[in-house]
Every structure is written in C-alpha cells, then in structure tokens.
Amino acid sequence: MNMDMGMAGNRGFDRINLMMTIARRGVGDSVIEDLRGMGVTYNMVCVGESMGGLGLADYMGFEDDEFDIILSVVTDGKADRAIALIEYGYSEIADGGAVAALMPITGVSGPLVLEYIAGPPPGGG
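Request: output the structure for the sequence above.
Response:
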C-alpha cells in the first residue's frame, strides 16, 4: 500500500486537510461564504485573542487584539484554490489581510470520519 495515500487512495477520496485561516475580526463570515462558493462546505469561525506578549494581532496589522480564526476541511483537489483565495482575495483588507495554513488530517479513518460528520459528497459518493 502506498503510505502517502493511505486508505484514502483505496476508497477514491482526495486526502483531506485542516485549513486554519486568521483574519481581521468580522471577516470570518465573508471568508466562509467565499470558501462555500468554491465547494469547501465544512467551516467554523471562532474568535481569537492575542494574549501576553504574542502580539499576533499587531504583527498582522489589526487594530484590536481580537481576530477571527476560521477552521475549514479542504480536500487536496481544492487546497491550492482555497489558499489562493485567502492569499489574493483577502490581501487588501484595510487594517491587515488574512493568512492561512494547511495541515494534513492523516490516518486511516480520516475520510470516513469526514463523511460521517459532513455527510456524503454531492452526487452520492
């Protein structure tokens, strides 16, 4: 078995990734709307806050210490487009853009768990 693809390759699934996006407070819903428009349908937004000496909000150019954290499940087939959406679509926000990172969700059951949580893919599957 190809260890890089794991069980996902045997079931016909794209590998899945957790994409974490950090954006100016209040922008999270817009990011989710744009991601849904490109077929990334499992998203969650929560509030982050700079604490102690971290200064993440200052580093990103935000006016206050709160920011939106958007967690999205993205398949490999949509990952490049999702990252490009954040990189180019949100680079001109007035007091700071947005930044995103992908983390592979590995494991034999990853695709099965995603299907259980998010439902079957459109068109059956």
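The chain has a mean pLDDT of 76.
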